[in-house]
Batch of 2 targets.
Target 1
Amino acid sequence: MSTRLDHQTIPFLDLKAQYQPLMPEIRAAMEAVFADTGFVLGPRVEAFELAFARYCQSSHCVTVHSGTAALHLALLALDIGPGDEVITVSNTFIATAEAISFVGATPRFVDVDPVTRTMDVSQVEAAITQRTRAILPVHLYGQPAPMAPILALAKAHNLYVIEDACQAHGAMYHGKRVGSLGDIGCFSFYPGKNLGAAGEGGAIVTSNPEWAEKIRLIRDHGAPQKYQHRIIGHNFRLDALQAAILSIKLPHLDVWNAARRSHAANYTRLLQTVPGIKTPVEPEETQSVYHLYVVQVPHRARVIEAFQQHGIQYGIHYPVPVHLQEAYSFMGLLKGSLPVTEALADGIISLPMYPELTHHQQERVVEVLAGALAQTNGGV
Ligand SMILES: *Cc1c(COP(=O)(O)O)cnc(C)c1O
């Protein structure tokens, strides 16, 4: 019996709420860009790069036009290409693997830890071959991967570590920002990310000036000066409008992340009494920024039906693991090859999560979720 008193849709994400208070500042910044029509790269992009490097506790930041491009360029900077293998996870957005494939290398998928849902380090050593060049962990949902053991393994086997931090701007591991822990960290500023542009954007951070320089060159046709092409590059540049907007938003990121963490703690507390549900777990050395709040539920179809009925938006991140995607069928990895990843894909659901979410909305989400699961306990 559902009450119809409060039947307002609860969005999965509310970007309008985030932009509203910033609009006067954003409009002024956009006016300034149009006033001088410096639309691509330039001082606004450089200013954001300095600010973002500092935020990530790293020495260099090079912006690009997407997180996918950031991953792609990180691999190119490290000369990873045909014949090489990169160890990563299948429990991720496909861009992680695509970047590896796009430079001509081969992703070697390992399974994830069922509790943290990030790379299961105990499987990495067995995946290392003569061809392995790098380990590419993903800080999925904002939860840092176990970087200390990953870095130790990488050091022992002389491998690079590239962090996919596209969902984890500001997350911490042992008090250090993710992205600055490995050799190169990759970020996305896709609109819905914790720090999002009003369009596409991405960045790499690194403490190595040579890699930063190489990425800077490839980003802009291999040309340190106009029409002086030192190497063969491409166009991966960021717009000045995006950089201006990102610079306005960056000072708010820690407050937004703190709000996400508070909402996550609230969800976890409210869900404590719901039988059969698994909520996110943060190991004590990590501080997640909850890009997504993902739970595992029995009878997911029932939960989805109830959410749809009650106007609660949700997501599934991700319904089909990378190794089972048609695009990766050529690798011949069958169902059953990564059991934890596959079980997650079948049971996860992402609840509404954004800084402006209210406690009242969270209570509604949990009420509907608990109701749906209580129904199925009767054996429906
Ligand atoms: C968003 C995302 C990417 C890709 O970023 P884009 O900016 O969309 O290209 C890569 N990896 C992960 C884990 C992501 O969530």
Target 2
Amino acid sequence: MDERTALIAANLATVRERISAACRAAGREPESVTLVAITKTYPAEDVARLAELGIRDVGENRDQEAAPKAAAVPGMRWHFVGQLQRNKARSVASYADVVHSVDSLRLVDALADAAARAGRETPLGALVQVSLDDDEQRGGALTGMVEKVAEAIAAGPALSLRGVMAVAPLGWAPDEAFARLAAIGSRIRQRFGGPHDPADWISAGMSNDLESAILHGSTHVRVGSALLGKRTPLG
Ligand SMILES: *Cc1c(COP(=O)(O)O)cnc(C)c1O
């Protein structure tokens, strides 16, 4: 094991311990939380190191970066978590298992079309990203639109409605943000969840706030810097 792999292994052990402790505190099973390693800004070699350490779920927020890494490290489950332009839908549908950041009816149409053309064996998973503070500038559907976007995802065969996703808005207490997301997720699950698509994922929690997210029912934590190190901002 090279030095970098050993460092990532130590970070991974710490993150898994945090997830376990948060699950114990919440009375949940650690298996009920999936760790999605966010590899943005880090090279494909780090994705391979994570694979060697048993990680299968990896996430990226830009197609330009994700597509070559997905090609370089086969066998991973790719989660797309960033704002997505409709003209990137074809590319993303060719390698991603699930898109966490679906926030408009137009994007649902583009992804459904792309997924249908991609000749996939399974539908492309989709989560509705919720703008918890109804700020239109940063990604996410306004709270009043969430059900419409979920309904559109659930309507066709090319996409599979997995649930809801959010990032805690700046300046909000994570507990407040994630409690609100849990309530929205529960409504979506009751309205649109079915035997094939239970729509029961809650994608919430990052390096700094995963404990709060798990307390409020997160099923998928998206962790980058706590695993791979602090990112230098892209120029
Ligand atoms: C970068 C990113 C993460 C991971 O953030 P960290 O603070 O590095 O854990 C999670 N979710 C999204 C949508 C991201 O863009």
